[in-house]
Fold:
Amino acid sequence: MHKTSATLLIIDDDDVVRASLADYLEDSGFKVLQAGNGLQGLEIVRQDCPDLLICDLRMPQIDGLELIRRINDMGIEMPVIVVSGAGVMNDAVEALRLGAADYLIKPLEDLAMLEHSVRRALDRVRLRGENQRYREKLEAANRELQTSLHLLQEDQNAGRQVQMNMLPMTPWQDGDLEFSHQIIPSLYLSGDFVDYFRIDERRIGFYLADVSGHGASSAFVTVLLKFMTTRLLYEWRRNGSLPEFKPSDVLGHINRGLINCKLGKHVTMLGGVIDEQNGELTYSIGGHLPLPVLFENGQARYLEGRGLPVGLFDEAQYSNYQMPLPEAFSLTLLSDGVFDLLPGDSLKEKEQELPRLVIRAGGTLDGLRQVLGLANLGEMPDDIAVLVLNRNLP
Structure:
Protein backbone atom coordinates (compact mmCIF):
# COMPACT_ATOMS: atom_id res chain seq x y z
CA MET A 1 0.00 0.00 0.00
CA HIS A 2 1.29 3.46 -0.91
CA LYS A 3 1.96 5.47 2.25
CA THR A 4 1.63 9.25 2.36
CA SER A 5 1.75 11.91 5.03
CA ALA A 6 -0.85 14.09 3.29
CA THR A 7 -3.93 15.14 5.25
CA LEU A 8 -7.24 15.35 3.39
CA LEU A 9 -10.46 17.11 4.43
CA ILE A 10 -13.78 15.74 3.12
CA ILE A 11 -16.80 18.06 3.38
CA ASP A 12 -20.14 16.51 2.48
CA ASP A 13 -23.55 16.68 4.16
CA ASP A 14 -24.27 13.08 3.13
CA ASP A 15 -22.84 11.03 6.00
CA VAL A 16 -22.81 7.76 4.04
CA VAL A 17 -20.98 9.22 1.04
CA ARG A 18 -18.53 11.06 3.28
CA ALA A 19 -17.75 7.97 5.33
CA SER A 20 -17.24 5.75 2.28
CA LEU A 21 -14.84 8.24 0.72
CA ALA A 22 -12.96 8.60 3.99
CA ASP A 23 -12.64 4.83 4.51
CA TYR A 24 -11.28 4.31 1.02
CA LEU A 25 -8.74 7.12 1.22
CA GLU A 26 -7.59 6.08 4.70
CA ASP A 27 -7.00 2.56 3.36
CA SER A 28 -4.93 4.21 0.63
CA GLY A 29 -2.63 5.69 3.25
CA PHE A 30 -4.02 9.20 3.74
CA LYS A 31 -4.98 10.90 6.98
CA VAL A 32 -8.59 12.01 6.54
CA LEU A 33 -10.57 14.71 8.38
CA GLN A 34 -14.35 15.08 7.94
CA ALA A 35 -16.90 17.88 8.09
CA GLY A 36 -20.68 17.76 7.53
CA ASN A 37 -21.06 21.32 6.23
CA GLY A 38 -19.08 24.22 4.81
CA LEU A 39 -18.81 26.29 8.00
CA GLN A 40 -17.49 23.34 9.98
CA GLY A 41 -15.08 22.63 7.15
CA LEU A 42 -13.79 26.23 7.16
CA GLU A 43 -13.04 25.96 10.86
CA ILE A 44 -11.05 22.76 10.28
CA VAL A 45 -9.19 24.47 7.44
CA ARG A 46 -8.20 27.31 9.78
CA GLN A 47 -7.10 25.00 12.60
CA ASP A 48 -5.56 21.98 10.89
CA CYS A 49 -4.44 23.30 7.46
CA PRO A 50 -5.12 20.10 5.51
CA ASP A 51 -3.17 19.45 2.31
CA LEU A 52 -6.21 18.93 0.09
CA LEU A 53 -9.97 19.51 0.23
CA ILE A 54 -12.70 17.26 -1.21
CA CYS A 55 -16.12 18.85 -1.13
CA ASP A 56 -19.63 18.64 -2.50
CA LEU A 57 -21.26 21.59 -4.25
CA ARG A 58 -24.78 21.32 -2.83
CA MET A 59 -24.50 21.77 0.96
CA PRO A 60 -26.49 23.70 3.58
CA GLN A 61 -25.32 27.06 5.01
CA ILE A 62 -22.67 27.66 2.33
CA ASP A 63 -22.31 25.71 -0.89
CA GLY A 64 -19.12 24.41 -2.42
CA LEU A 65 -18.54 27.39 -4.69
CA GLU A 66 -18.83 29.84 -1.80
CA LEU A 67 -16.55 27.62 0.24
CA ILE A 68 -13.86 27.82 -2.46
CA ARG A 69 -14.27 31.61 -2.64
CA ARG A 70 -13.81 31.99 1.13
CA ILE A 71 -10.71 29.78 1.12
CA ASN A 72 -9.29 31.89 -1.69
CA ASP A 73 -10.08 35.07 0.27
CA MET A 74 -8.21 33.62 3.26
CA GLY A 75 -5.10 33.38 1.07
CA ILE A 76 -4.81 29.64 1.62
CA GLU A 77 -3.29 27.74 -1.31
CA MET A 78 -4.98 24.38 -1.15
CA PRO A 79 -6.05 22.10 -4.01
CA VAL A 80 -9.80 21.49 -4.06
CA ILE A 81 -11.48 18.52 -5.72
CA VAL A 82 -15.21 18.92 -6.25
CA VAL A 83 -17.28 15.73 -6.07
CA SER A 84 -20.88 16.58 -6.87
CA GLY A 85 -24.03 14.96 -8.12
CA ALA A 86 -25.49 18.23 -9.39
CA GLY A 87 -24.09 17.68 -12.85
CA VAL A 88 -24.64 21.30 -13.94
CA MET A 89 -22.05 22.45 -16.48
CA ASN A 90 -22.07 26.06 -15.24
CA ASP A 91 -21.20 24.87 -11.72
CA ALA A 92 -18.30 22.80 -13.03
CA VAL A 93 -16.96 25.71 -15.08
CA GLU A 94 -17.27 28.12 -12.13
CA ALA A 95 -15.56 25.66 -9.76
CA LEU A 96 -12.63 25.26 -12.14
CA ARG A 97 -12.49 29.03 -12.70
CA LEU A 98 -12.18 29.54 -8.94
CA GLY A 99 -9.19 27.20 -8.91
CA ALA A 100 -10.59 23.74 -8.29
CA ALA A 101 -8.05 21.06 -9.24
CA ASP A 102 -10.70 18.63 -10.56
CA TYR A 103 -14.44 18.07 -10.87
CA LEU A 104 -15.86 14.56 -10.43
CA ILE A 105 -19.47 13.48 -10.86
CA LYS A 106 -21.33 11.43 -8.28
CA PRO A 107 -21.84 8.61 -7.91
CA LEU A 108 -18.22 7.51 -8.17
CA GLU A 109 -18.40 3.98 -9.47
CA ASP A 110 -14.65 3.51 -9.10
CA LEU A 111 -13.06 5.27 -6.12
CA ALA A 112 -9.64 4.64 -7.63
CA MET A 113 -10.50 7.57 -9.93
CA LEU A 114 -10.80 9.82 -6.87
CA GLU A 115 -7.51 8.55 -5.46
CA HIS A 116 -5.81 9.20 -8.79
CA SER A 117 -7.21 12.75 -8.85
CA VAL A 118 -6.02 13.34 -5.27
CA ARG A 119 -2.50 12.10 -5.94
CA ARG A 120 -2.27 14.10 -9.17
CA ALA A 121 -3.40 17.27 -7.39
CA LEU A 122 -0.91 16.70 -4.55
CA ASP A 123 1.88 16.07 -7.08
CA ARG A 124 1.07 19.38 -8.76
CA VAL A 125 1.22 21.16 -5.42
CA ARG A 126 4.54 19.48 -4.64
CA LEU A 127 5.96 20.47 -8.01
CA ARG A 128 4.73 24.06 -7.62
CA GLY A 129 6.35 24.16 -4.21
CA GLU A 130 9.62 22.82 -5.58
CA ASN A 131 9.49 25.33 -8.44
CA GLN A 132 8.81 28.14 -6.00
CA ARG A 133 11.72 27.10 -3.80
CA TYR A 134 13.90 26.85 -6.90
CA ARG A 135 12.86 30.33 -8.03
CA GLU A 136 13.55 31.72 -4.56
CA LYS A 137 16.99 30.10 -4.55
CA LEU A 138 17.62 31.38 -8.07
CA GLU A 139 16.55 34.90 -7.10
CA ALA A 140 18.77 34.75 -4.01
CA ALA A 141 21.66 33.52 -6.14
CA ASN A 142 21.01 36.33 -8.63
CA ARG A 143 21.05 38.88 -5.83
CA GLU A 144 24.31 37.45 -4.54
CA LEU A 145 25.70 37.46 -8.07
CA GLN A 146 24.69 41.10 -8.56
CA THR A 147 26.39 41.98 -5.29
CA SER A 148 29.51 40.06 -6.29
CA LEU A 149 29.51 41.68 -9.73
CA HIS A 150 29.20 45.08 -8.11
CA LEU A 151 32.15 44.33 -5.82
CA LEU A 152 34.09 42.93 -8.78
CA GLN A 153 33.35 46.09 -10.75
CA GLU A 154 34.65 48.18 -7.87
CA ASP A 155 37.78 46.03 -7.70
CA GLN A 156 38.19 46.28 -11.47
CA ASN A 157 37.82 50.06 -11.31
CA ALA A 158 40.43 50.28 -8.57
CA GLY A 159 42.76 47.90 -10.41
CA ARG A 160 42.33 49.80 -13.64
CA GLN A 161 43.15 53.06 -11.88
CA VAL A 162 46.31 51.55 -10.41
CA GLN A 163 47.30 50.20 -13.82
CA MET A 164 46.64 53.53 -15.54
CA ASN A 165 48.75 55.34 -12.95
CA MET A 166 51.66 53.00 -13.68
CA LEU A 167 51.65 53.66 -17.42
CA PRO A 168 54.06 56.30 -18.66
CA MET A 169 52.93 59.63 -20.06
CA THR A 170 51.98 59.57 -23.74
CA PRO A 171 53.39 61.10 -25.81
CA TRP A 172 56.76 61.53 -24.05
CA GLN A 173 59.52 63.57 -25.64
CA ASP A 174 63.13 63.21 -24.57
CA GLY A 175 65.63 64.99 -26.76
CA ASP A 176 64.85 64.09 -30.36
CA LEU A 177 63.12 60.83 -29.40
CA GLU A 178 59.34 60.61 -28.93
CA PHE A 179 57.50 57.70 -27.32
CA SER A 180 53.73 57.15 -27.53
CA HIS A 181 51.48 54.22 -26.74
CA GLN A 182 47.90 52.94 -26.64
CA ILE A 183 46.45 49.91 -24.83
CA ILE A 184 43.02 48.51 -25.70
CA PRO A 185 41.94 45.88 -23.15
CA SER A 186 39.61 43.05 -24.16
CA LEU A 187 38.40 42.96 -20.55
CA TYR A 188 38.28 45.80 -18.12
CA LEU A 189 41.80 45.02 -16.97
CA SER A 190 44.56 44.42 -19.46
CA GLY A 191 47.37 41.89 -19.49
CA ASP A 192 49.35 44.12 -21.87
CA PHE A 193 51.74 46.74 -20.55
CA VAL A 194 54.29 49.22 -21.86
CA ASP A 195 56.90 51.35 -20.19
CA TYR A 196 59.73 53.69 -21.17
CA PHE A 197 62.09 55.60 -18.92
CA ARG A 198 65.47 57.27 -18.73
CA ILE A 199 68.20 55.02 -17.34
CA ASP A 200 70.91 57.66 -17.10
CA GLU A 201 72.08 60.75 -18.96
CA ARG A 202 72.84 58.79 -22.14
CA ARG A 203 70.45 55.83 -22.15
CA ILE A 204 66.68 55.27 -22.40
CA GLY A 205 64.98 51.95 -21.72
CA PHE A 206 61.63 50.67 -22.95
CA TYR A 207 59.60 47.46 -23.17
CA LEU A 208 56.27 46.01 -24.24
CA ALA A 209 54.91 42.99 -22.35
CA ASP A 210 51.98 40.68 -23.02
CA VAL A 211 50.93 38.63 -19.97
CA SER A 212 49.25 35.27 -20.58
CA GLY A 213 45.51 35.27 -19.93
CA HIS A 214 43.26 38.21 -19.17
CA GLY A 215 41.63 40.04 -16.30
CA ALA A 216 42.75 40.83 -12.78
CA SER A 217 45.33 38.05 -12.42
CA SER A 218 47.11 39.09 -15.62
CA ALA A 219 46.88 42.76 -14.69
CA PHE A 220 48.52 41.93 -11.36
CA VAL A 221 51.55 40.58 -13.23
CA THR A 222 51.88 43.93 -15.04
CA VAL A 223 52.17 45.54 -11.61
CA LEU A 224 54.84 42.99 -10.74
CA LEU A 225 56.73 43.75 -13.98
CA LYS A 226 56.73 47.45 -13.19
CA PHE A 227 57.97 46.71 -9.67
CA MET A 228 60.75 44.38 -10.82
CA THR A 229 62.11 46.71 -13.49
CA THR A 230 61.92 49.74 -11.23
CA ARG A 231 63.52 47.89 -8.32
CA LEU A 232 66.30 46.56 -10.55
CA LEU A 233 67.09 50.05 -11.82
CA TYR A 234 67.00 51.42 -8.27
CA GLU A 235 69.35 48.75 -6.93
CA TRP A 236 71.87 49.36 -9.70
CA ARG A 237 71.76 53.09 -9.16
CA ARG A 238 72.17 52.68 -5.40
CA ASN A 239 75.41 50.79 -5.94
CA GLY A 240 76.87 53.97 -7.38
CA SER A 241 77.47 52.88 -10.96
CA LEU A 242 75.16 51.42 -13.55
CA PRO A 243 76.27 48.30 -15.42
CA GLU A 244 75.60 47.92 -19.12
CA PHE A 245 71.89 47.39 -18.34
CA LYS A 246 71.58 44.82 -21.09
CA PRO A 247 67.98 43.96 -22.05
CA SER A 248 68.87 40.25 -21.91
CA ASP A 249 69.84 40.65 -18.24
CA VAL A 250 66.53 42.38 -17.48
CA LEU A 251 64.52 39.60 -19.17
CA GLY A 252 66.53 37.00 -17.27
CA HIS A 253 65.85 38.82 -14.00
CA ILE A 254 62.10 38.93 -14.72
CA ASN A 255 62.13 35.28 -15.79
CA ARG A 256 63.59 34.20 -12.44
CA GLY A 257 61.22 36.47 -10.53
CA LEU A 258 58.07 35.13 -12.19
CA ILE A 259 59.15 31.51 -11.75
CA ASN A 260 59.94 32.07 -8.07
CA CYS A 261 56.56 33.76 -7.49
CA LYS A 262 54.77 30.63 -8.80
CA LEU A 263 51.86 32.62 -10.20
CA GLY A 264 51.24 30.28 -13.11
CA LYS A 265 51.71 33.20 -15.49
CA HIS A 266 54.24 33.85 -18.20
CA VAL A 267 55.00 36.88 -20.34
CA THR A 268 56.14 37.56 -23.87
CA MET A 269 58.32 40.67 -23.99
CA LEU A 270 60.33 43.02 -26.14
CA GLY A 271 62.84 45.10 -24.24
CA GLY A 272 65.32 47.66 -25.57
CA VAL A 273 67.94 50.21 -24.55
CA ILE A 274 68.80 53.22 -26.72
CA ASP A 275 72.30 54.61 -26.27
CA GLU A 276 72.02 58.22 -27.41
CA GLN A 277 75.80 58.72 -27.37
CA ASN A 278 76.57 56.17 -30.05
CA GLY A 279 73.09 56.14 -31.64
CA GLU A 280 72.66 52.42 -31.08
CA LEU A 281 69.70 50.25 -30.11
CA THR A 282 70.22 47.06 -28.09
CA TYR A 283 67.15 44.86 -27.73
CA SER A 284 66.15 41.42 -26.53
CA ILE A 285 63.12 39.26 -27.33
CA GLY A 286 61.27 36.95 -24.95
CA GLY A 287 59.02 34.78 -27.11
CA HIS A 288 57.14 37.75 -28.52
CA LEU A 289 55.27 38.11 -31.81
CA PRO A 290 55.01 40.17 -33.87
CA LEU A 291 58.62 41.33 -33.99
CA PRO A 292 59.31 45.10 -33.92
CA VAL A 293 58.73 46.90 -37.22
CA LEU A 294 61.33 49.49 -38.26
CA PHE A 295 60.08 52.28 -40.54
CA GLU A 296 62.71 54.26 -42.50
CA ASN A 297 62.66 56.23 -45.75
CA GLY A 298 59.12 55.13 -46.54
CA GLN A 299 59.97 51.43 -46.11
CA ALA A 300 59.23 49.02 -43.24
CA ARG A 301 60.78 45.73 -42.14
CA TYR A 302 60.83 43.44 -39.15
CA LEU A 303 63.83 43.41 -36.85
CA GLU A 304 65.42 40.01 -36.39
CA GLY A 305 65.51 38.04 -33.15
CA ARG A 306 64.04 35.22 -31.13
CA GLY A 307 63.87 33.98 -27.55
CA LEU A 308 61.84 31.92 -25.07
CA PRO A 309 58.80 33.32 -23.23
CA VAL A 310 59.58 34.89 -19.86
CA GLY A 311 58.53 33.03 -16.73
CA LEU A 312 58.28 29.50 -18.15
CA PHE A 313 61.74 27.93 -18.19
CA ASP A 314 64.42 28.06 -15.50
CA GLU A 315 67.17 27.53 -18.04
CA ALA A 316 65.96 30.25 -20.45
CA GLN A 317 68.74 32.35 -21.94
CA TYR A 318 68.13 35.64 -23.73
CA SER A 319 70.24 37.23 -26.47
CA ASN A 320 71.01 40.86 -27.22
CA TYR A 321 70.67 42.25 -30.73
CA GLN A 322 72.30 45.54 -31.72
CA MET A 323 71.70 47.95 -34.57
CA PRO A 324 72.53 51.58 -35.39
CA LEU A 325 69.50 53.84 -35.36
CA PRO A 326 68.75 55.84 -38.53
CA GLU A 327 68.64 59.61 -38.36
CA ALA A 328 64.89 59.54 -39.04
CA PHE A 329 62.85 56.45 -38.18
CA SER A 330 60.09 54.92 -36.13
CA LEU A 331 60.00 51.60 -34.31
CA THR A 332 56.58 49.99 -33.75
CA LEU A 333 56.02 47.34 -31.07
CA LEU A 334 52.67 45.55 -30.87
CA SER A 335 51.14 42.75 -28.80
CA ASP A 336 49.79 39.70 -30.63
CA GLY A 337 46.20 40.93 -30.18
CA VAL A 338 46.81 43.03 -33.30
CA PHE A 339 46.65 39.85 -35.42
CA ASP A 340 42.87 39.85 -34.87
CA LEU A 341 42.71 43.12 -36.84
CA LEU A 342 44.96 42.13 -39.73
CA PRO A 343 43.71 40.70 -43.05
CA GLY A 344 44.77 37.19 -44.02
CA ASP A 345 43.79 33.62 -43.19
CA SER A 346 47.10 32.45 -41.75
CA LEU A 347 49.61 33.90 -39.31
CA LYS A 348 52.15 34.15 -42.12
CA GLU A 349 49.76 36.23 -44.24
CA LYS A 350 48.97 38.50 -41.32
CA GLU A 351 52.69 38.98 -40.55
CA GLN A 352 53.33 39.92 -44.18
CA GLU A 353 50.58 42.52 -44.03
CA LEU A 354 51.77 44.34 -40.90
CA PRO A 355 54.80 46.18 -42.39
CA ARG A 356 52.57 47.36 -45.26
CA LEU A 357 50.12 48.84 -42.73
CA VAL A 358 52.97 50.56 -40.90
CA ILE A 359 53.99 52.15 -44.22
CA ARG A 360 50.40 53.30 -44.84
CA ALA A 361 50.39 54.73 -41.31
CA GLY A 362 53.56 56.69 -41.99
CA GLY A 363 55.22 54.98 -39.04
CA THR A 364 53.19 56.97 -36.49
CA LEU A 365 50.76 55.95 -33.76
CA ASP A 366 48.09 58.33 -35.07
CA GLY A 367 48.46 56.74 -38.50
CA LEU A 368 48.10 53.25 -37.01
CA ARG A 369 44.99 54.33 -35.14
CA GLN A 370 43.41 55.25 -38.47
CA VAL A 371 44.71 52.29 -40.47
CA LEU A 372 43.72 49.72 -37.83
CA GLY A 373 40.54 51.53 -36.74
CA LEU A 374 41.62 51.53 -33.09
CA ALA A 375 39.20 54.31 -32.20
CA ASN A 376 36.16 52.28 -33.30
CA LEU A 377 36.94 48.85 -31.89
CA GLY A 378 34.28 46.90 -30.04
CA GLU A 379 35.03 44.08 -27.62
CA MET A 380 38.11 42.22 -28.83
CA PRO A 381 39.12 38.61 -28.04
CA ASP A 382 42.58 39.76 -26.89
CA ASP A 383 44.27 42.85 -25.52
CA ILE A 384 46.05 45.11 -28.00
CA ALA A 385 49.06 47.19 -27.04
CA VAL A 386 50.93 49.55 -29.38
CA LEU A 387 54.18 51.33 -28.58
CA VAL A 388 55.77 53.61 -31.16
CA LEU A 389 59.08 55.45 -30.76
CA ASN A 390 60.25 57.78 -33.48
CA ARG A 391 62.86 60.35 -34.31
CA ASN A 392 62.71 63.21 -36.80
CA LEU A 393 59.64 61.93 -38.64
CA PRO A 394 57.64 64.63 -40.47
User: Anything to note?
Assistant: The chain has a mean pLDDT of 87.
